[in-house]
């Protein structure tokens, strides 16, 4: 017999947060074989999971059944059900792939999601669409890596931002110059290492921050250090006010094939409230510049932003979709502690209605990758939609963790994926420390990959 105090268990706390936000109640779970008893608020809920235990890998049975027991108890107690049921992890698709790998067919694997993990029918159907969109694109390729390059600068700071982002202003100009110099060195050394190991690049992604916040010369230096990778190559240009014809032509010259221009909303009043310092009109202009260059375009939207109504979101979604970008990504507001957003409690219902709108009005697009974050409004998700054949390989293989990621830049996290193992190596996040410990961390990263690829031989 085992007894868990839910406040002492991070995964169980995550389940409790689905119902109580940060007010985690005192509760305990007692399990004996497949019998689970949940004691909470002077109530007792008993469950017997002997009929479902076989659908869960043995090594994970106790952990997952405890979460299911707590979810079942809280659903009974509150009368609420959650779209992702008892799942609290980042990648729900992984469980579908786990069930497929265990020999189940697609329908059975999706049934596991609803019947075992209590995922709603709607979300299980979305997972089905994603699995079908990813078919043939889930690559387990040991000889390939995804290259990630991080630019931690932005034109200004959005007030929902919880990333490390440095404003690209006069005060930080010298810091930015030094950063670009060191980053280029890191990229060149990293590419030499990949070459020496015979590792090829499956896709490249420059993210941030806002890479296009760099001036033309700095952007040219970073892209020049990477060279023409000859594969899917994304550069984020998240802030429309940072997109110019000069920077687009630099990106094209260096082989960039896909860019992300992210309005987040087309409502100017909201853009002002969230500190984006650009207008919807600037987004349309930036989109036009990029479309003329012939790159694939992704546009991010956020459902649930400050005070936005369903109509605001619908207008944004329809307005972006009318441009026919190859990808649209809909994020559900994440209520992050580091952000400056104040929540009024109504964001959950509004956000849920907005994401439903996106799913029901996404004709011509299919959901092709999905991930979840902690503290997302209404326990929802972020979903990438793509026109058929325009699914971003980087998003799929990085999110599904099927290809190693070799990352350069402050705070960039490299990830080795191979032989059933996943290991990470993080660069220093702080720009000053990134510069101070540059040589040591670069050597550490190359050694990290060297030893893992050696031991995989
Ligand atoms: S553009 Fe992105 S990284 Fe930059 S401040 Fe806004 S949310 Fe943060």
Give a description of the structure.
There is one protein chain. The two termini are 43 Å apart. The model has no long low-confidence stretch (mean pLDDT 92). The chain is of the alpha/beta class and 457 residues long. The longest helix is centred in the middle third of the chain and has 25 residues, at 173-197. The strands form four sheets. Strands 13-14-12-11-10-9-8-5-15 form a nine-stranded mixed beta sheet, with helices on both faces. It has 15 helices and 17 strands. Helix 4 packs antiparallel against helix 5 (121-134) and helix 6 (173-197) packs parallel to helix 15 (438-456). The chain has helices at residues 10-20, 61-78, 93-101, 106-115, 121-134, 173-197, 216-226, 245-253, 268-273, 280-292, 310-321, 347-360, 393-399, 431-436, 438-456, and strands spanning 2-5, 27-32, 35-40, 43-48, 144-151, 153-154, 166-167, 200-208, 232-236, 258-260, 296-303, 327-332, 366-371, 382-386, 404-408, 413-418, 421-426. It folds into three domains: 1-80, no CATH class; 82-135, no CATH class; 144-407, Aldolase class I (TIM Barrel). The structure holds iron/sulfur cluster. The site of iron/sulfur cluster has 11 residues, from loops.
């Amino acid at each position: 017999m085992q007894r868990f105090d839910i406040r002492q268990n991070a995964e169980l706390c995550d389940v409790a947060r689905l119902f109580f936000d940060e007010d985690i109640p005192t509760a305990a779970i007692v399990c004996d074989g497949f019998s689970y008893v949940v004691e909470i608020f002077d109530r007792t809920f008993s469950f017997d999971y002997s009929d479902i235990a076989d659908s869960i890998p043995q090594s994970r049975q106790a952990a997952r059944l405890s979460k299911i027991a707590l979810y079942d108890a809280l659903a009974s107690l509150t009368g609420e059900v959650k779209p992702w049921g008892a799942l609290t992890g980042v990648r729900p698709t992984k469980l579908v792939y786990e069930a497929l790998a265990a020999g189940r067919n697609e329908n059975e694997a999706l049934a596991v999601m609803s019947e075992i993990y209590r995922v709603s029918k709607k979300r299980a159907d979305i997972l089905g669409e994603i699995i079908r969109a990813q078919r043939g694109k889930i690559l387990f390729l040991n000889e390939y890596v995804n290259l990630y390059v991080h630019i931690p600068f932005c034109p200004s700071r959005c007030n929902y931002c919880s990333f490390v982002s440095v404003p690209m202003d006069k005060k930080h100009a010298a810091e930015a110059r030094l950063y670009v110099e060191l980053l280029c060195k890191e990229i060149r050394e990293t590419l030499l290492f990949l070459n020496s190991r015979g590792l090829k690049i499956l896709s490249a992604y420059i993210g941030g921050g806002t890479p296009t916040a760099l001036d033309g010369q700095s952007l040219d230096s970073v892209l020049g250090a990477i060279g023409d990778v000859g594969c899917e190559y994304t550069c984020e240009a998240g802030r429309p006010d940072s997109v110019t014809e000069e920077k687009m032509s630099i990106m094209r010259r260096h082989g960039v094939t896909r860019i992300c221009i992210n309005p987040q909303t087309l409502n100017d009043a909201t853009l002002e409230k969230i500190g984006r310092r650009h207008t919807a009109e600037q987004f349309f202009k930036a989109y036009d510049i990029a479309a003329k260059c012939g790159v694939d375009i992704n546009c991010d939207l956020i459902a649930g932003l400050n005070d936005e109504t369903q109509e605001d979101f619908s207008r944004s979604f329809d307005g972006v979709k009318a441009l026919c970008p190859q990808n649209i990504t809909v994020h559900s507001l994440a209520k992050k502690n580091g952000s400056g957003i104040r929540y009024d409690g109504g964001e959950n219902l509004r956000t849920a209605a907005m994401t439903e709108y996106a799913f029901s009005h996404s004709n011509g697009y299919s959901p092709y990758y999905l991930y979840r974050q902690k503290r997302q409004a209404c326990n929802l998700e972020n979903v990438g939609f793509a026109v058929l054949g325009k699914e971003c390989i980087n998003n799929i293989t990085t999110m599904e963790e099927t290809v190693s990621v070799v990352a350069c830049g402050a705070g960039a996290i490299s990830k080795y994926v191979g032989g059933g193992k996943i290991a990470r190596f993080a660069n220093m996040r702080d720009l000053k420390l990134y510069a101070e410990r540059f040589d040591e961390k670069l050597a550490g990263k190359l050694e990290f990959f060297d030893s893992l690829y050696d031991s995989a031989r």
